[in-house]
DNA sequence: GCCAACGTTGGC
DNA sequence: GCCAACGTTGGC
């Protein structure tokens, strides 16, 4: 069981859009590192849904429902998609600022490699961010 | 709107 | 294979 984080610009595709649709084909990834991460996803893996550009926060949890297959939006065989289903919206968004300000989260790719759109995340980091969202006070 | 950090492209 | 130029992403 692995954990991941995917970014989406809420202008283009927000958590609410995702929840309404009930499923998402995660297409359009055109970066090898992100692609490799998609390929490594297994059905049932947990995925944080992050709003980039606007919002700048982890907003929900999704789950991998279908593992990587060729991206139907291109003829280029290099690229793949996965299918995600929404699991639940976080009680409150956990902001990038909050993540940045916690010593235990300094190593995560969200901070270290800000341009990567699909990244692995350690279980402890996943749990910690989740615990932030359950803490009403911060 | 600006800029840092990358990734890609193309000339040599 | 190197590197300059350029494009893109995303935070501020």
pLDDT averaged over residues: 94
> What's the β-strand tally?
6
Number of domains: 1
Strand percentage lies at 25-35%
In the sheet with the most strands, the strands line up as 2-5-4-3-1-6
The assigned structural class equals: alpha+beta
CATH architecture type: Roll
CATH H-level superfamily: ph1033 like domains
Protein name: EVE domain-containing protein
InterPro entries: 5hmC_binding (IPR052181), EVE_domain (IPR002740), PUA-like_sf (IPR015947), THYN1-like_EVE (IPR047197)
Pfam families: EVE (PF01878)
Organism: Runella rosea
Structure, explained:
The protein is an alpha+beta fold. The protein has a single domain (3-134), classed as ph1033 like domains (ph1033 like fold). Helix content is 27%, strand content 35%. The protein has five helices and six strands; from the N terminus they run E-H-E-H-E-E-E-H-H-E-H. The chain has helices spanning 15-21, 32-40, 96-100, 109-112, 123-134, and strands spanning 3-8, 24-25, 46-51, 57-70, 80-95, 118-121. The protein has a six-stranded mixed sheet. It starts with a strand and ends with a helix. 33% of the residues are buried. The structure holds a DNA duplex (12 and 12 nucleotides).
């Amino acid at each position: 069981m692995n954990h991941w984080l995917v970014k989406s610009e809420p202008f283009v595709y927000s958590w609410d859009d995702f929840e309404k649709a009930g499923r998402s084909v995660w297409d359009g990834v055109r970066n090898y590192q992100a692609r490799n991460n998609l390929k490594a996803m297994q059905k049932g893996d947990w995925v944080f849904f992050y709003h980039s550009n606007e919002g700048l926060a982890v907003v929900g949890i999704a789950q991998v429902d279908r593992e990587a297959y060729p991206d139907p939006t291109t003829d280029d065989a290099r690229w793949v998609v996965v299918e995600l289903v929404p699991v639940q919206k976080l009680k409150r968004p956990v902001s990038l600022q909050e993540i940045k300000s916690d010593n235990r989260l300094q190593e995560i790719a969200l901070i270290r490699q800000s341009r990567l759109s699909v990244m692995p995340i350690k279980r402890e980091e996943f749990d910690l961010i989740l615990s932030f969202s359950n803490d009403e006070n911060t």
